[in-house]
Amino acid sequence: MRLRDSDVAGLKYRRFVGRRVPSSTSSLLDLDPIAYFAMGGFALFFGLFFVVLLYDIPLFLFLCGPITIIPGVIAIAIGVRQWRRERTVVEFASWAKSQRRIKMDLMAQRLGKTRFETEKLLGKALDEGLVKGAIDRTSDEFVSQDAVKQEHFVGKCPNCGGNVDTWYFPEERVVCPYCERVVALRADA
After folding, report:
1. What are phi and psi of 12, to 5 degrees?
2. Distance CA 136, CA 36 (A)
3. Contact (Cβ atoms closer than 8 angstroms) between residue 21 and residue 14
4. Is 102 helix (H, G, I), strand (E, B) or coil?
5. Which of 19-28, 33-42, 56-65, 67-76 has the lowest mean pLDDT?
6. pLDDT band for position 1 (50/70/90)?
7. DSSP code at position 30
8. What is the phi/psi pair of residue 129, to 5°?
9. How far apart are CA 168 and CA 155, in angstroms?
10. 3-state DSSP call for residue 54?
11. 3-state SS track over 123-189
């Protein structure tokens, strides 16, 4: 598969900027909070300018005041909302880093959110690179990338020969679901 010149230019642009390029479906509400604070502050500055300096000309005051003050307040409010969302994602990411492996339903329960909201929050943290890992859909667990290096696999129970088929960490106890005995793990595992 050959890349076109436009594809190569796009790759260079992405590499140069260092951030992901917004897709065509991105909206005005996906900007950084500082951009909203700057736009709101700029609009409020000119709104206050019109109120203070043009108070004796009611026509300019009534035309220019609301056109600048109302959007300025709205932009600052959106900036505060975006800042809170970013802070929530960063706090979630720091918590998720402490979890090596956790079931998605348990994660949602601990966060007090629905399963969909939790997966959306996890996806945002993964996209931004704040957390490294993946959701294992076979066991319905989030597994951090560091945990993958530490995990070991138990296939069959050495006591009864039943299929245990589970991943474990060295300090965990693995219990066979058939004979309910603790599976003796190798020392070098």
Report:
1. -65, -40
2. 37
3. yes
4. strand
5. 19-28
6. very low
7. G
8. 80, 15
9. 11
10. coil
11. HHHHHCCCCCEEEECCCCEEEEHHHHHHCEEEEECCCCCCEEEEEECCCCCCECCCCCCECCCCCCC
* Residue 79: partners with Cβ closer than 8 Å, 6 or more residues away: 33, 34, 35, 36, 37, 40
Instruction: Report the largest interatomic distance among the alpha carbons of the chain, rounded to a whole angstrom.
Output: 93
Reported as type and span, the H/E element at residue 167 is strand 163-168
pLDDT at 18 exceeding the cut of 90: no
Which residues, 6 or more positions from 128, have their beta carbon under 8 angstroms from its beta carbon? Answer: 89, 93
Residue with tokens 């129970």: 157
Residues in the chain, overall count: 189
Are 164 and 157 a contacting pair, CB within 8 Å?
yes
Residue 128: closest CA among 160, 98, 85 = 85
Q: What is the spatial distance between Cα 128 and Cα 54, in angstroms, rounded to a whole number?
A: 46
Instruction: Report the percentage of the chain scoring pLDDT > 70.
Output: 76
The string of pLDDT tens digits covering residues 145-183 is: 766 566 677 778 877 888 877 777 666 778 888 887 777
CA distance 150 to 183: 18
Sign (positive/negative) of CA torsion 57, 60, 63, 68?
Answer: negative
Prediction pTM value? 0.58
Q: Which residue in the block uniquely carries the two structure tokens 């505060």?
A: 80
Tokens of 158: 């050495």
Name the pairing type of β-strands 152-156 and 163-168: antiparallel
